What we know:
Chain A has 20 helices and two strands. By secondary structure, chain A is mainly alpha-helical.
Amino acid sequence: MDNLDLLWGGLQTAVTPEHLLYAAIGVLLGTFVGVLPGIGPAMAVALLIPVTFTLDPTSAFIMFAGIYYGGMYGGSTTSILLNTPGESASVMTAIEGNKMARKGRAAQALATAAIGSFVAGTVGTLLVAFFAPALADVAVEIGAPSYFAIMVLALVMTTTVLGSSPLRGYVGLFLGLSVGLVGLDLNTGQQRLTMGVPQLIDRIDIVVVAVGIFALGEALWVAAHLRRSPMRVTPVGRPWMGRDDWRRSWKPWLRGTAFGFPFGAIPAGGAEIPTFLSYATERRLSRNSDEFGHGAIEGVAGPEAANNASAAGMFVPMLALGLPVTATASVMLAALQGYGIQPGPQLMSDQSDLVWTLLASLLIGNAMLLVLNLPLAPLWARLLRIPRPQLYAGILFFACLGAYATNLDPFDVGLLVVFGLIGLMMRRFGIPVLPFILGVILGPLMESKLREALAISGGDFSVLLDEPLAIATYALIAVLVVARPVFAVINRKEHDETDRSHDEELVER
Amino acid sequence: MLAGACALVLLTGCGVTRGDDTKDLDMWIPNSPGGGYDQTGRAAVGVLERDDVTGGNIQVTNILGAGGSVAMSRLFGEEGNEHLLMTIGLGVVGSTYSFAVDSRPQDATPIAQLIEDQEGVLVPADSPYKTIDDFVEAWKKDPGGIAVGGGSSPGGPDHLFPMQLAKAVGIDPREVRYVSYDGGGPLTSALLGNKIQVGFSGLGEFEGQIEAGDLRALAVSGEERLEGETVADIPTLQESDIDLVFTNWRGVLAPPGISDKRKQELIDYLTEMHDSPEWQQALEDNGWIDAFHTGDDFEKFLVAEDERVATTLKELDLIDHDA
């Protein structure tokens, strides 16, 4: 196989001590960058561009790739330990991951995230290596109507996460959708709910919302109850994943990869939707679905795999078409131009050495991250033994730093506090935070895709059924909506039967 | 972990301190890393630092928000700050209107225009439009029936260009069916997937696609044809008797209220940068057209551009007529 030879050649180029060193620097830097909310991989690569002009393009790109994957790993660490997601793709990880950490299972959560990321990153990179040009041709066919349909699917699936009280769940969802409306309507230039504040025009950053609601809201809630409830020390559990953890993780890793990769490959796909779809699917499929919301390992394994697979998928349009679909990709392509290399469809043939070395170093960087992160998991987990007041002080410091670092604007810190207070109130009144966050993520995306589709068709709604994928997605939604009550009935019957056979067994004994 | 995080903030904050810190400068980029403003601003700072033109450090900060309007408002809040520069361009001028910022760029201290970028008219390879005339003819017949797109939101260069082109060929800009995409990447994929018929954008990002034959450029918007193997045979609009020259430009502003002496000093820095071989190399690498004007010339240019943007946006009813 031709590509296999090329990849082998790339591996040989990548495995020089010098290139390995750059890969190592990249993954370390990336991990730090991912850990800190506010500074994303795009910013890190942009800052490094002047430094790397003294390097040859291959070394520079090996380092950039390391930063990119490293950032994806680092984001999950803070999500799990501190409930402060570093970027929007790891918001879903915080939900179950942090609950696991509280139960003394931080090491397992970190491990399943690391291994899941490794699996997804490796599978994703291999898919890029062997199928990028073919995938790219398919990906550009997927337009706004399909994307909108997928988002309708995501919205239908939010009903699984509404919590025990649907009314409160919907309150959360609609609050989130309202927050998602804040900002400038890009089609007409109208400002919505900005109250004349210029910093609100560009919409509210999802990371600020998530950190405010999760971390700050939680800290305030704990502080408000300090005197009434005794401090519980976080138990420190076993350091490694048990057999049961493996059994429950491997399927979500693969499913997460399957969700994430296509979203990375379609232009403007993003990583948020697949992490959510993965979470909702695992919640629905899991035998331990009652554990969801209290730290189910599937809820960490799936979304983490999904966000890394999506990160790998990004290389499909970038390498096969020369298209930047994420901020990081556009910075990398800008760097390429700085070397006088023209990104475009011929990149893979004109610069095949560079491309294959890059792909090989992605595989190496991924393995390095696993080696780096897996032994660190139990060490990170010990961080939680810091007494609560000090730990929460650390979290607050960290959250504010991250909010400020995004734009060096004190306004964002104020915004963070506002969302912290909203988070506190939601906890006080029992409004679940997950539907809220989904509203913030899904609302603006759905709106922009719907309006893009309608702008293209000139307001004709039939455009929404213009693409085969869109029709297939609506069919799936119909099946889900119809099937759910039916399944519920069947399940109940099965339950009755198992109960009965169980009783019979008892009787026989 | 915290220590690492703090170290990173410091790392992003400043480089190695050397020399006299009264000579230090800040360079604000009104947009995100990787974008056009970022590339221009960082390229300029790179040359300034490499040749140690200013004798101090230059710190680059991306100030995001509202298409550059946030950075513009903050620049006006820094009145009299003699250690600050900001990259500006056509898109920022447009955004100050869309986002209702009252400050006009010419009221700050114009230092220098650096570069120009031509816009191109792009179609997918299998499009029925072989020439700009084919497209204009079809467009005139049914302006609302052809979906055109660009990589900027209303007020940005990719939006202003098709509107001014429409007006130049006698179409009411309000009838144009414009779809806005989040940058060149999503715009290209919309073109490749035949989601829209025609795209308007700076050509820099598309040379690869044009060279590979996936996209066809019907025209460029500048006074003269572009240089370069793949783009040299793209005609200008004027060659097809369309009376329109449109360029996207970028330059550097300082805050209002700085002394004339300091203004001249800053102009001198940029002139020295412009004359260096490194800058000429940067222009070539990025496919930018050299368009260097300083001080009063740049100010006159800003006034004219500002008026032109305002006129187009008024015709589209995107801003009030009395604004």
